[in-house]
Structures are given as C-alpha cells and as structure tokens.
Amino acid sequence: MFFFRLKDLSFRASVLLPIFIMGVLISSLAWWLYSDRTHQEQTYLNERTVRVESLQVANDIGIEMWRARLAVALTWGNPRDMKRIQATEQTLTHLLEEFDNYHPDNEPGRKLKQLVPEYVTEAKATFAYFHTIDKAVKHGISGSGKIFDQYALHIANGAYSGEWQRKALTAFNHLRTTAVYYNGFVSGMRVSYLDTALKNINAAVVILEQNLADDMTANTYRVAKRYQEAMLILDKDINGYHLSHKAALDTGAKVNDALIDLQNLLGEQGFIFADEGLRQRELSNQITIGLLFAALATAVGFSLVLVRGMQAQLQLPLNAAEAIGNQDLSQCHIDDGKNEFGELSRSLDKMRLNIREVLGQIIESSAQLSSASEEVSAISIQSSANMHSQQEQLDSLSAAMEEMRSTSSDIAHNAESSANATSDAAKSAHVGGEAIEQTVVAIRSVEQEMNVTTDNIRQLVEESQRIGSIVDVINAIADQTNLLALDAAIEAARAGEQGRGFAVVADEVRSLATRTQSSTEEIGSIIKRLQEQAVAAETTMTESVAKMSQGVEAVNRSGDVIQEMNGLRCKVSRRPLRP
Predict the structure, then answer these.
(1) Where residue 204 falls among pLDDT bands split at 50, 70, 90?
(2) 355 to each of 403, 472, 528, 551, how far by Cα in Å?
(3) Is the pTM higher than 0.90?
(4) C-alpha span between 92 and 402 (Å, rounded)
(5) Which domains does the chain have, with CATH numbers?
(6) Who contacts 169 (Cβ-Cβ below 8 Å, separation ≥6)?
C-alpha cells in the first residue's frame, strides 16, 4: 500500500505524520480555495465592469436620446427660433456620433441603433421646413405688416372715395386676415390656417391689382405679391413637413419602446448575472466542503491505519512481557520493525534469552552444588566414622596401654593404620574443599550474570520511561491541536456563513485530536503495565541475586568447616606417638 513499511517509522514520526498530512492537505486546499476565489472574484469584477459599462453606455445613450427628443419637441413648438433650431440640429448630429460609437450586443440595442438615424433624419426634415419658413418670411412676410398698416392709415385718411374705398378696405381686411391665419399656422402648423391665409392673400392681390395707378396701392400690391409667393412656398412643402413630423413621432415612439426594452433587458441581465454569481459561489462552497471531507477522510483513514499498525506492533512486546511475567520463557515474540516498538520487542526477547540462560546456569550450578553437597556430606560422614573409629582405638589404646607396650609391634601396626585412615580423611576433605571452591566460583558467575540481567531490566525500565515521556509529548501536541481546532471554530463562527465549511473542518480536526489523545492514553497505559512488569522482573532478579549471595555464604561456611577439619587432622598427624 505504501512505498515504505509502517513498522519502520519511528513512534514520533507515526504520531506526527497524520498531523503533517492533514496540515499539507488543508494548506493545499486553502491555497486552491484562495486561487479559485481570487479567479472567480477577478472574473466577476471584469464581467461586472463590462456590464456596468454597457449599462452606463445605455443610460448615457438614453439620456442623450431623451435630451434630443425634448429639444426636438421644444423646437417644434417654436419654429421661428432659429437659434434653437440650430442647437437642436447640433444635438441630433452629436447623437448620431454617439450611436456611431455604440456597438450593442443585444437585440434592443441593435434596434435602437437602427431607429435613431431614422429619427434624426425625419426630425431634420421637419427642421428643413422651418428653414423654408424662415426663407419665406425673409422673402415676403417680414416687414409686410408695416406696409399694410400704412395702407390702412392711407385709406382711413380718406385718400380714396366711392367704390375703390370699399374695395381697398376689403383688400386690407384680406391682408389682416392673412397675417392672423399665418401666425396661427406658424404656431400650430395647421394646414387649414395656411389654406385660409393663402385664400385671403390671393383675394387681396386680385383686388389690389385693379388700382395699380395709385402709388400706395401699387406698393402694397408688390408687398402682397411677395407675401403670396412666400405663402405658396410654404404651401408647397407643408405636406412633406407633416409626413416627416408624423414619421418622427412614430419613430420616436419606437425609440422610446426600444429604450425601455434595453433598460429592462440590462436590468434582467443584471439579475441573471447576480444569480449566476450566487450559483457559482454555492457550487464553489459545495466543492470546498466535499474536498474538505475527502481530505479529512483521507487523513482519518491514514491515521487509523497508523494507529492499528502501532497497536499490532505494540502487541508483540506486550505479549512477550506477559509471557515473561507468567514465567513462560519458551515463546518468541520478535518484531523486525526499525522503530522504537521493534527495538523494544527485540530488547524483551534478548532479556528473555538472557533470563533463560541465567536460569539454566542457575539450575546447572544448583545441580553441581547439590552433588558437591552430597559429596561433602558423604565425606563428612566418613570423616565422622573415622574419627569415631579413632576414638574407639584411642580408648582401646588407653585401656590396653600395658598390652600395647608389650605388643609394640601391634601398636605400631595400628598406628600405621590410623595414619593411613587419617590421610584418607584428609584427602577426602581436600577434595570436598576444592568442590566447594568450584561451587562458589560457579555461583558467583551466576550472580554476575544475574547482575547483568538486572542492569538490562533496569535499562528496559528507563527506555519505557522515555517512551512514556514521548507519549506525554504526543498528548501535549493533541491538546495543542484541540486548542487550535477550537480557535478555528471560533474564528469560523465569527466569519458567519462563509466560515461554515471551516467550522466543520475545525470540528473534524478536534475530533481527530481527541481520538489521537485517547489512542496515546491507551498506549501510555500499555507502556505503564510494561514498566510495572519490568520493575517486578527487576525486583525478582534482585531477590534471586540476594539468595545466590546467601548460598555463597553457606558454601563458604561449609568450606571453613572442612578447613577446620583439615587443621584438626594435621594436629593429630603431627602428635608424636609415645611408646
């Protein structure tokens, strides 16, 4: 599954590796989230800028269009204001330039771009008629009122009489009516007013033409004639003006509808854009949560694999210690791992072999000691029997001194026998002493081996205590991880909705830290039991060493007794025989 064996990892690496992997996964995910959010925000800002620019352009065009239409309407209300007409024409020209730079990407915008030039053309056509009115005024209408008033004053002063005076008054009335209807025509561009004015000017010209011999009448006739020509000019183009005016109104209504459609479309696109942004944000959050859970599941799964591997590896030294505690030295529990648990397993197996070897030596030495003790006991019994025999012989010698004096040859023979028996007892005692010395040497060798085993067990206790300190470090790391997870949960709660995903991750990290702490506590309890069993083994070995020391002292005392017996034998052998 891995390119390395889990049992080759050190205990510290086994504990820190899941935390490191979790940190790497969270850091990678955080970097990916940051990059993705930055890209999304940049894309959102760019698209938002484009949409805002499109909306701004549409608003500017709409404002320009409404401003142009308002100027056109005001110009239509006063066709004699040439400054306003020129200003409105410039406004329309500027509007065309704006629309030349406008490149819409939607149907209402394209429709508006098509309608605006038509509207400008039709509005300018109406303004062309206004220029025609200005030309007509300059041609024959401007200044005519003054001439007509002079003619009326001339009539009122009685310059004429009879029938012509009546005709002159009729002609003046036609002229005044023409002026009134002309002004009414100009203010409303009504064709009926123009027709009435043209009818009256024609009638006035016909009447004035009958008295051209009069200078005043001839002058008034010339002015009326130009007035008639101006009215004919206006009458000639009036239908075209109305057609252009109606077309401009219709096109303006279409432009208005297109502007409304464009504004609605842009507003709807803004809502759609906002909804798409929310959907993308929600999708990104879902992906983030999914990746967080996947990373968490990966880290938890890897942690469980490590914990199970550690538990399985720790079970071997635990079984070995339990077997040693049960005085079973035949089972072999060896782990080939290269971490602390493997070293602990091999150390326990080495201790088992050492204890087994020491116990074998103790058994062998005990057997030798038992044999030597039996031999010493036999020698002691034999020596006691010989001593008793010597005592009896001495008694016999004391009782039969006289007989021994008389039979010196018998006494000498008996003395020689006693010397031989005493020599045999001395030899046996010497052999017993040498056996006791060998026994002492063997027991001391066993005692040294047991001291070495005791030192190994003491080192095992110290190593177990070191493992306990490592477990304390792991517990501290788990506590610190738990605190960090709690701080992350608090910060996520402060962040609100955006931090909900990180709150879930913080809870899972805190749960992982809790499980890690419980696993390390279980490992600590196992190591504690192992320490207790090692201490018990150390105590047992210490007691065995003390008992071996007592055995050595007992054997030494046996040697002293034998040496005393040798001393007594020497005294007996050196005592001179008295005949």
Answers:
(1) very high
(2) 68, 31, 22, 19
(3) no
(4) 181
(5) 56-279 (1.20.58), 339-393+410-574 (1.10.287.950)
(6) 155
**439 contacts 368 by C-beta, under 8 angstroms:** yes
pLDDT at 579 over 70: no
CA distance linking residue 112 with residue 96, whole number of Å: 12
First to last CA, the chain: 103
- Report the pLDDT value the prediction gives residue 408, as an integer from 0 to 100: 45
Give, as one character, the DSSP assignment of residue 211. G
Which amino acid, residue 328? D
* Token pair of 452 as six digits: 């070495």
What's the distance, CA 162 to chain centroid? 115
List the one residue out of 90, 128, 522 whose CA is nearest residue 311: 522
Decide if 520 contacts 475 (C-beta within 8 A).
yes
Helix 408-495, helix 500-574: angle, nearest 10: 170
Which residues are CB-neighbours of 400 under 8 A, at least 6 positions away?
none
Locus of tokens 């081996």: 449
For 271-275, 312-316, 416-420, 542-546, which range has the lowest pLDDT when averaged over its residues? 416-420
Q: How confident is the model at residue 310 (pLDDT cuts 50, 70, 90)?
A: low
- Give the chain's length: 579
CB-neighbour burial class of residue 496 (10 A; exposed 0-12, middle 13-18, buried 19+): exposed
pLDDT tens-digit series, residues 441-476: 766 776 677 677 767 767 766 776 776 676 676 677
Question: CA–CA separation, 126 vs 243, rounded Å?
Answer: 9
Rounded to 5°, angle at Cα 339 from 468 and 512: 60
For residue 420, which of 568, 569, 576, 563 has the smallest C-alpha distance? 569
Cα–Cα distance measured from residue 476 to residue 482, given in angstroms and rounded to the nearest whole number:
10
d(CA 118, CA 113): 9
Q: CA 231 from chain center: how many Å?
A: 86
Using an 8 Å Cβ cutoff, are 124 and 243 in contact?
A: no
Nearest CA to 428 out of 556, 552, 569, 551 is that of 569
Is 241 in contact with 129 (CB distance < 8 Å)?
yes
